[in-house]
Amino acid sequence: MKKIWIIHNSLHGNSEQISRKIAEDLKNSYDVSLDSIKNINPEDIAKDDPYGLIVGVRILAFRSDNEIRSFISNLDKVTNKPISKVAYFSTHALGWKKFFIKGMKKTLEKAECVEEICPEFLEVKMKGAEGPAVEGADAKIGEFISTLKNFIN
After folding, report:
1. Tens digit of pLDDT for each residue in 12-63?
2. At the topology level of CATH, where does 3-152 sit?
3. What are residue 59's DSSP bridge partners?
4. Which of these, 118, 122, 10, lies nearest to 68 by C-alpha position?
């Protein structure tokens, strides 16, 4: 069974909640591990030699979370074999602008440990910093999970 890691750096639980939904939907087809970057280090992921990585990104101060971007950079330093499939999603409480996620995309594109990035990503708007997600988010998450399944296979 292919190993998939899902990581997040959730502050109010929004990215964690979406990560859990994704993990629940993928667990019957893949060996899924999920954790906060506060609880693990890049070596934990590297030693598992994962086939896939899904990254939950908070948008803070109009940009991708620096901590998770730094985590990916450090993962790049300790990974011996590229991760075949990498995808990401974001949570935010702002009017969406595509440049919010630009930093995360650049981080993944520069990482030698990333073989292929999913061409589509998910952005989920929250009603406020502490959530919940706006109406219609569940359908978007479901569509993203379907995209992930096709991308991973």
Report:
1. 999 999 999 999 999 999 999 999 999 999 999 999 999 999 999 998 878 8
2. Rossmann fold (3.40.50)
3. 64
4. 10
